[in-house]
Design brief:
The chain has 22 helices and nine strands. By secondary structure, the chain is of the alpha/beta class. It has a five-stranded mixed beta sheet. A four-stranded parallel beta sheet has the order 7-6-8-9, sandwiched between helices. The longest helix has 18 residues. The structure holds iron/sulfur cluster (2 copies). The site of one iron/sulfur cluster has 16 residues, from helix 3.
């Protein structure tokens, strides 16, 4: 038995690998272990061996695939243009189909019905908020503690972003994917997006019929759940001229909707990461450049922004326009180890990569960092033990704008909680 689903990597996807090894030094798991089986080339060889019926989807194969972060750092450096992320998602769907486990069933429920339900997420968020209030997040079991320890404070959260913003009549309509976790735990980022887009002359529409983008389900091999969520979003955003997401993982997944939903290709073509749109508005003079002198700020590149979407200049342009001096944390852009569920499923490797990132941040001496992905923010906040302030580039910009205009007296930038 080779592959059993229609999701599997195709022969042409796998044969694009010419075994050159140029990807190896860019792969975090290869750098951690030095093992060929923990490299992109090794994993693609293993997939090809299954394709040819030489090996089965057995336990050693699953371990090779599970250890991959899905960071896609291997893609931009690959001369064969191997669509590694696609091959990985297809292979994980095969694992779910051929080796279903109790853990997969639980994850399938969490990544589909739970993330797709605002009510279920809201109940979970109230529970987490209570844990924070009672200072009990330290009692959360080990592999989940890194996650809860890196969350923003859930106290006094602003109202959910939904509906259509007031904006200039006749202005271009921008659909805002508010996300699942992003909507519940990082609402300040969505609020900053609405405030800045409106000021830039857009009308923002956040339809309440939207749902989780499905990225986490797709990355974990839950292809059916990912397709259901994508179809719902295609219906919700069908009419908007432009669509943005404020989490890099979500915007990267929207760009792949052509694979995940009928008519998803049109949405994919019209979607962008919020950093791209805001940087363009600053470039075009629709948002102001603020005076410098705010001091240094580190910029971290989320893998799904840097490697999957090849977006690096825009987050830097935004914090520069806010008056900060950009400090590079990691010119190689290695994964921080967050990688969706990786923190929970591969805690040791995730912790090691998180600690490496924390060391890089500390070595620069910055106490402010801009990151455009919620998972990265939580991982780095947890790894730096609350010594550093993290926020999305657009939050740093809105904060600076508000201060420079004395429009508000309090900062929207969140601090860490324990
Ligand atoms: S860089 Fe691309 S072609 Fe070369 S070994 Fe890695 S995946 Fe294969
Ligand atoms: S996705 Fe990341 S961890 Fe996986 S093979 Fe590519 S570079 Fe390595």
């Amino acid at each position: 038995m080779a592959w059993v689903t229609t999701e599997h990597p195709t022969r042409s996807e796998l044969s694009a690998c010419v075994q050159c090894g140029l990807c190896l030094p860019h792969c975090p798991t290869f750098r951690l272990t030095g093992k060929e089986t923990a490299s992109p080339r090794g994993r693609l060889s293993a997939m090809s061996a299954v394709q040819d019926g030489i090996v089965q989807v057995d336990r050693p194969f699953v371990e090779i695939i599970d250890f991959c972060l899905g960071c896609r750092a291997c893609e931009p450096v690959c001369p064969g243009m191997v669509p590694y992320g696609r091959a990985l998602e297809g292979t994980r769907a095969e694992i779910v189909a051929q080796r279903p486990s109790f853990s997969h069933r639980i994850r399938g429920f969490l990544l589909g019905p739970v993330l797709g339900s605002r009510m279920a997420l809201g109940i979970g968020t109230v529970f987490l908020s209570l844990l924070q209030r009672l200072r009990l997040t330290r009692l959360v079991p080990g592999r989940f503690r890194r996650l809860t320890g890196g969350m923003r404070s859930l106290r006094g959260r602003p109202a959910r972003v939904a509906g259509t913003s007031a904006g200039p009549k006749g202005g271009e309509v921008i659909g805002l994917l508010t996300g699942c976790v992003q909507d519940q735990w990082f609402r300040q980022t969505n609020e900053a997006a609405v405030a800045l887009l409106t000021r830039a002359g857009y009308r923002v529409e956040a339809p309440s019929a939207q749902t989780c983008c499905g990225a986490l389900a797709a990355h974990d091999g839950k292809a059916g759940q990912a397709r259901r969520l994508a179809a719902k979003n295609v219906a919700a955003f069908g009419e908007v001229e432009h669509l943005v997401a404020t989490a890099a993982g979500c915007s990267a997944h929207l760009a792949g909707y052509g694979h995940w939903a009928d008519d998803g290709g049109a949405i994919a073509e019209r979607s962008e990461d919020i950093t791209v749109l805001i940087a363009r508005a600053i470039e075009e003079g629709r948002l102001p450049r603020l005076p410098g002198g705010r001091g240094p700020i580190g910029v971290q590149d989320p893998c799904h922004l840097r490697h999957a979407q090849r977006v690096t200049a825009e987050p830097r342009a935004i914090v520069e326009a806010a008056g900060y001096e950009v400090v590079e944390i990691d010119p190689r852009g290695l994964c921080c180890g967050a990688a969706g569920l990786y923190t929970v499923l591969q805690p040791e490797a995730s912790r090691e990569l998180g600690n490496q990132k924390a060391d890089q941040i500390r070595s620069t001496g910055v106490n402010k960092v801009a990151t455009a992905n919620p998972g990265c923010e939580m991982q780095m906040r947890s790894a730096t033990d609350g010594d550093v302030q993290f926020a999305h580039p657009i939050e740093w910009y809105l904060d600076a704008l508000a201060q420079s205009e004395s429009a508000v007296t309090s900062s929207p930038v969140e601090s860490s909680v324990d």
